[in-house]
Design goal:
Strand order of the largest sheet: 3-2-1-12-13-7
Shape: elongated
Number of strands: 16
Bound molecules: 5'-O-[(L-methionyl)-sulphamoyl]adenosine
Strand content: 15-25%
Structural class: alpha/beta
CATH architecture of the largest domain: 3-Layer(aba) Sandwich
Largest sheet: 6 strands, parallel
Helix content: 40-55%
Number of helices: 20
Number of domains: 2
CATH class of the largest domain: Alpha Beta
Radius of gyration: 26 Å
CATH topology of the largest domain: Rossmann fold
């Protein structure tokens, strides 16, 4: 990654529900990218936040007999206290009820209107409240959803809407957006989602109703206050508000975003509506939109009615935060659906973290303590087996960088794990206990040095995934506490930094086995 700005976002989460596994997942993924970007020397802006407006939130508040604002305040508190518990290192947290956001959304509206992208008409079609999504009769007929009047996405009942509305000329951007997506193969990922978007656009873009008059919980249309701005126009604009919009100069320091991480269910909003809005407003498009898959729990969809939504607090009460972070990004390729089971989590922790990584740390530092009282001596000569280890570490660093540029978290972790296994093989093949017994002192020094220096570089690559655990491991390796925020790969990511006489601590277990 070059030294420049890096702007990563999560969706902003609706405040009608408490945080669950899905929210935790995207935010942890974004955190890994942000932490890695900072370590790579980039000027990172990591944004998350909450989506507080819309009919769905208004209804949820009504059901609880409180105002939408009171509901939002309650749920925001949950998110604000959850993020530190998950070691989330966001730079900004946006609320769509904030004054800065209202100003930004209304400025966006004026800009679109000035560009001729908005007109007034009458909306007579269907609306899905849970998805906050409009459906025309034509779209419903296309997908055979006309008979049952159910949302093609979530299959819940649609509402009939007939009201005066402002429209956004989405149809005007069909060809431009198609061409853009064809010309920029990395714009939408993974490829299956990109194809889905292409098919949707090819089926024809209809102008989008972007204001409502039948409820009030939202940002008013400038100069026509009876109209409330469509919640998705409001929500998507958050990505511009946070870096400074409508102050364009300030905003452009970070905009365009390097990557919007989203779930697959909100792809159309991000990969069709949002780019068209930006095109119409004459603003640059985000560089990449990555839609990840959905978690099921023990094979079942998480849902309020089944009462099986996994709550972060329950998971954190049972499992270490870094083990959870690791599991979520290691278990399934980002972009695919996957199943969350505690058995799978325990298995991963006990094999890859305790048996492989924990064991490599433990045996390396134990031998260093036993044979050298914890003191390192760099190699005077290296054998092929040593050079192979170093070459593998350097290749791993390049591979991890490439994987993270593609948001392929599981690949990055698999690659690091392959190196951990290499490290354990290196111990078996060199048999340091025999070197000690046979008085091969120089060779013993060389082997111990390669193990500890290799571990140091492995830990650095794992910091974005497991910051607290890696701080604990690096503490033992460096012989003193480390400041993770100060770590830059360019200055400490090279081989051979540990010098003669460096003192490590005796090992203490970092990944206890579960169960
Ligand atoms: N408010 C909108 C986003 C606006 S962004 C400008 C929204 N909010 S949400 O709270 O309903 O969903 C937020 C995210 O959670 C979505 O990306 C969605 O994909 C994700 N998840 C919800 N359930 C999930 C799983 N079971 N698994 C993984 N992610 C899931 O949509």
């Amino acid at each position: 990654m070059a030294s420049s700005s890096y702007y990563v976002t999560t969706p902003i989460y609706y405040v009608n529900d408490q945080p669950h596994l899905g929210h935790m997942y995207t935010t942890i993924a974004a955190d890994v990218l942000a932490r890695y970007g900072r370590m790579a020397g980039r000027d990172v802006f990591f944004l998350t936040g909450v989506d507080e407006h819309g009919q769905k939130v208004q209804q949820a508040a009504k059901d609880r007999n409180i105002t939408p604002m009171a509901l939002a305040d309650q749920v925001v508190e949950r998110y604000a206290s959850l993020w530190p518990e998950l070691s989330i290192s966001h730079d900004d947290f946006i609320r769509t009820t904030s004054a800065r956001h209202k100003e930004s959304v209304q400025a966006m509206w004026r800009r679109l209107r000035a560009a001729g992208a908005i007109y007034k008409g009458v909306y007579e079609d269907w609306y899905c409240v849970p998805c906050e999504s409009y459906w025309t009769k034509i779209q419903l007929k296309d997908g055979n959803h006309w008979e049952d009047k159910q949302c093609p996405d979530c299959k819940r009942n649609l509402e009939r809407v007939q009201e005066e509305s402002y429209f956004f000329r989405l149809s005007a951007w069909q060809d431009t957006l198609l061409k853009y997506i064809h010309d920029n193969p990395d714009f939408i990922a993974p490829a299956s989602r990109r194809n889905e978007v292409l098919r949707f656009i090819e089926s024809g873009l209809h102008d989008l109703s972007i204001s409502r008059t039948t409820f009030s919980w939202g940002i008013p249309v400038p100069d026509d206050e009876g109209h409330i701005i469509y919640v998705w126009i409001d929500a998507l604009s958050n990505y511009l508000t946070a870096p400074g919009f409508p102050d364009e100069q300030r905003c452009m320091h970070y905009w365009p975003a390097d990557v919007h991480l989203i779930g697959k269910d909100i792809l159309r909003f991000h990969a069709v509506y949002w780019p068209c809005m930006l095109l119409a407003a004459g603003l640059p498009l985000p560089k990449r939109i990555f839609a990840h898959g959905w978690w099921t729990v023990n094979g079942k969809k998480m849902s309020k009615s089944l009462g099986n939504a996994l709550r972060p607090a329950d998971l954190l009460a049972k499992y270490d935060v870094d083990v959870l972070r690791y599991f979520l990004l290691r278990e399934i390729p980002f972009g695919q659906d996957g199943d969350f089971s505690e058995d799978a989590l325990v298995r991963r922790c006990n094999t890859e973290l305790s048996n492989d990584l924990g064991n490599l740390l433990n045996r390396s530092l134990s031998m260093l303590k036993k044979y050298r009282d914890g003191i390192l001596t760099p190699a005077s000569t290296e054998e092929a087996i040593d050079r192979a280890l170093i070459a593998d570490i350097e290749a791993m660093q390049r591979d991890v960088d490439a994987a993270l540029q593609q948001q392929a978290f599981h690949q990055a972790l698999e690659r690091i794990n392959a190196l951990v296994r290499h490290g354990n093989r290196y111990v078996q093949e060199n048999e340091p206990w025999l070197l000690a017994k046979n008085n091969k002192q120089q060779r013993l020094d060389t082997v111990l040095y390669h193990l500890v220096e290799g571990l140091r570089l492995i830990c650095i690559q794992l910091i974005p995934f497991m910051p607290t655990k890696m701080a604990a491991m690096l503490h033992q390796i460096m012989g003193k506490p480390v400041d993770l925020n100060a770590i830059r790969i360019a200055s400490i990511g090279g081989w051979g930094l540990l010098s003669k006489g460096h003192q490590c601590l005796a090992p203490s277990p970092v990944f206890p086995r579960i169960g």
